Amino acid sequence: MRLLDRSRTAVSTILATTVALCVTQASAQTPPGRAQGERPAQAPGGAAPAPGGAAAAPAPGGAAPAPGGAAAAPATTPGAAVAGPDVPGAAPGVPSPVTSPAGDATAEAFVEPDPNVATQDDLQGLRSDLENFKFQWQRERDLHTALSTRSLLIGGVVQARIGWSEQPVNTATSNDRKVTFDTGAAILSFNGILYKDYEEGRNLIYSVRFGASPQQASNNSFLNLLDAQLSYSILPTLGPEDWVLQVTLGQQLLPFGLEVPASEELKPVITNAQFTTKLGLNRRDLGLIVRGDILPQVDYGYNYRAALLAYAVGITNGSGPNTPDDNSEKDLLGRLAFTVPSDYNSLLRQITLGGSVYFGWQNTFLKDEKKTLSGKGVKRRYGADIYYNHYPIGVTYEFIYGQDDATLGTTPDDPRKTRLTSLSHVATFFYNWGEQFLRGYRNQGRYDDWWPKTYQPFLRIDLFDPSTEVLENRVDVYTLGFNLFFAETTKFQLNFNRRDDRTNTEGAQHELLAQLQGGF
């Protein structure tokens, strides 16, 4: 606020300086002896004035001009004072105090100073004030502003959570735990532009994210490197009608399905879908991925853009984040999504059909105590998804089919290599009411930190079968939830889960999770 007040003061001072300099310049251009806007004096009857220093014409009747070469007094007009002895109290030959002597150059050159014109002292004082302001502004910036070599945007997400489970949790370090507080995710992100192309928008950007997150499928609570990537736009991106082609190199999320590429703060449910963790798709990976779209549909009135076709292809290590490749093969993946062409107000808007594939290799291990390496096997993932989001309703569905080679034996001589098949179905139905997702409300003027609110109840059905070859091992999770979006980057989530694990002899279990998520 102090810097803002000083900025306003500086702007007012600069404006005043500009006006003063303009007035001074105009005054300097006015001829001597004439005030601004004054017209030259004219002789009676419209005659031209006599040349400077020349004697006036003789008065009628042959009267001689006044002594000393001075010009003759003008003809008397009604109500005008006359210089001469006829004026009471005036000595002969002495001009009247009311009028200046005719031909007096000092009197003609005198102009009363304008109080609105800045003097040299005023300008010098203004220069001193500006120098003091520049010094104070630079000092405040050095003390209170973080600096970087290139553009930088710092952001983050904090998720505070409390959970209750019907079945007590017993581990090596816990005993009969039912209620616990924990942190769902704590993320710190740095984003910016390394090279900005003002002519065509072929920008080079970077993104770095650190965090402790359950997405890593690890109990490690230390701050880990999540994303570290550089992206370059090959095609021009100056307008929404331009096609997109972007190359990203580094550690990043995989473009597979709907939930896998969504970051932690964008997921509608507190817990992830089962297939993302059990099939290893939620892990970041190191590699090169090309993303783009073609034939975008643009509605400038609603600020809406939807590409007819969106695609992504990539090559990765396949071994997870912060880890070099663990075998001689590279994993390949791709995704293609088709959006139904429609107007913004059409019921068909935002209907997207997508398909994803993942071809990879993974090391296999024996079932002995040492987990002996026995070779490598295939890792295949196939997915199909449907996305429909037309305010106020929304529906998403994902089908995942997986194949994994595994060794069931305990000795290298009899590894008993087999191929396991997994299936997953995830469907989410939600309804919105409120104004936060309406652009007209978000863009309107508001007081203080007011933001439109939105309420979102939803139902999710998550079915996962880790091995179709084994009977009665499917896990079904039904989630009844409610999301409250009450600020620009803040939401409250409440989930009630019913988990039916057919391998658990105690039957279905229930849990309640509440989470407050804030971003900056």
TrEMBL record:
Upper classification of the organism: Bacteria, Pseudomonadati, Myxococcota, Polyangia, Polyangiales
Organism of provenance: Sorangium cellulosum (Polyangium cellulosum)
Residues in the signal sequence: 1-28
Presence of the UniProt keyword Membrane in the record: no
Entry keyword annotation includes Ion transport: no
Protein name: Secreted protein
Residue spans of biased composition, Low complexity class: 40-97
Positions of the UniProt region annotated as Disordered: 29-104
Entry keywords, A to Z: Signal
